[in-house]
Amino acid sequence: xxxxxxxxxxxxxxxxxxxxxxxxxxxxxxxxxxxxxxxxxxxxxxxxxxxxxxxxxxxxxxxxxxxxxxxxxxxxxxxxxxxxxxxxxxxxxxxxxxxxxxxxxxxxxxxxxxxxxxxxxxxxxxxxxxxxxxxxxxxxxxxxxxxxxxxxxxxxxxxxxxxxxxxxxxxxxxxxxxxxxxxxxxxxxxxxxxxxxxxxxxxxxxxxxxxxxxxxxxxxxxxxxxxxxxxxxxxxxxxxxxxxxxxxxxxxxxxxxxxxxxxxxxxxxxxxxxxxxxxxxxxxxxxxxxxxxxxxxxxxxxxxxxxxxxxxxxxxxxxxxxxxxxxxxxxxxxxxxxxxxxxxxxxxxxxxxxxxxxxxxxxxxxxxxxxxxxxxxxxxxxxxxxxxxxxxxxxxxxxxxxxxxxxxxxxxxxxxxxxxxxxxxxxxxxxxxxxxxxxxxxxxxxxxxxxxxxxxxxxxxxxxxxxxxxxxxxxx
Length: 476
Ligand SMILES: [Zn+2]
Ligand SMILES: [Zn+2]
Ligand SMILES: [Zn+2]
Description:
Blueprint: E1 5-7, E2 14-16, E3 19-21, E4 24-26, H1 28-36, E5 39-40, E6 47-48, E7 52-53, E8 59-60, E9 82-83, E10 86-87, H2 88-99, H3 112-119, H4 124-131, H5 136-144, H6 152-156, H7 162-173, H8 182-195, H9 200-220, H10 227-249, H11 259-265, H12 273-284, H13 307-319, H14 325-337, H15 341-344, E11 352-355, E12 358-363, E13 366-369, H16 372-389, H17 411-420, H18 425-439, H19 442-449, H20 453-459, H21 472-475
Antiparallel strand pairs: 1-2, 3-4, 5-6, 7-8, 9-10, 11-12, 12-13
Helix pairs in contact: 2-4, 8-9, 8-10, 9-10, 10-12, 13-14, 14-16, 14-18, 19-20
């Protein structure tokens, strides 16, 4: 007697084979394979699932051997793109008739082009799957029954995502919605959303700048906005917001800023383009005096920053909410302790210790007691790691874990993070190194920074600068 656990006559594996087909018994996988791959039947020339053998052993359809058709679509009998008891087209028609019904049993007049467009796709099963996703289902449903306008403004309310973008493009392609520059529209939406997260007066100013400067130029150009332009503009808005926040923190205003202020701000920043444009616009609009934002200095001669400028930059990085905690910590380790990014990303969780109510960290061979401000930031980062880790099965040993489980953040990723925020890591670190070598004994310097005593000694030039806020380094 046959058992369930048997051999498949088709693929010859020892698996349950419960289908009496192909002149024997076949397994689930082989059954699905047949269903998925209908072909022209040599007996009747129709596209059919060929699951039976004729007298000479050729694969033919059920009808050609006088058997009851078990595969065909329950609505139209087709054997193509089968899904459940239906073919892809019948499933999609049914789904669309239901979803786009305006309440009278017919598809909403204005959504009929969408129905026709989708019914013409190559594999209707993909369209069926896509229609099941949110916010697609709810939005189309709402449009069909008149709860939501059939307009771009309805899509403007949805999350900014690839899915929404695809949805919008599809409605445009199907002639349901008029053609617009999709990225430009998204840029306006993303800007508007970003502006709600910053102080009102800053938001108004940036809004004004975009309204009169950026957007008209984007609208005027011949080619549509690309994803790169989109990202640049959004980053530009963040850069300007960070600058305005800094100004505010310095008790300065746009109307009172002068060249000295600009030079101070740009001592370490490299992403100047957007701010140069913004300040030029602001000067033309009479909001500030005309100032020069110099081009980035040649990398061959990295400018060294003053002690004061570095301390100020450290404060700015600490307060920079646009930069992620990881980015801020990497920047601060470079600014305050001259740590290269490649060393910082190599730090392990057990390089951090808590004692005397503060965090200590081991750079190279020396333990350093972190100042309260950095300590708090690191504490917050550790807390975030603990929360994230509880979702992750693999234990993490890195202070800055990367995307790949078990590996630390790639140095390049860390550098990119800071470069995008306008921080020139190498210049920061060089400046700090020069300053440290003026105040810290060469041996200590080599212990903390991990460079050889000789190199450190060579850098230990004339004394001068002080580093009041970070006395822990000197205590050694
Ligand atoms: Zn099989
Ligand atoms: Zn046939
Ligand atoms: Zn059908």
